[in-house]
Fold this sequence. Notes:
single chain; alpha+beta; Macrophage Migration Inhibitory Factor; two-stranded antiparallel ribbon; about 30% helix
Amino acid sequence: xxxxxxxxxxxxxxxxxxxxxxxxxxxxxxxxxxxxxxxxxxxxxxxxxxxxxxxxxxxx
Length: 60
């Protein structure tokens, strides 16, 4: 059973629904698995707790 972890900033629920459906479909196609066996975990991190290129995302 694949478990996919997505680390990201906060997104609205509709975008997350679309993302998990697409990730699940990719595993179903690539590994020929039943969709029920694919788990996707989304961990959201606030912009003040994430950085890129030496700057907080909140400061971008």
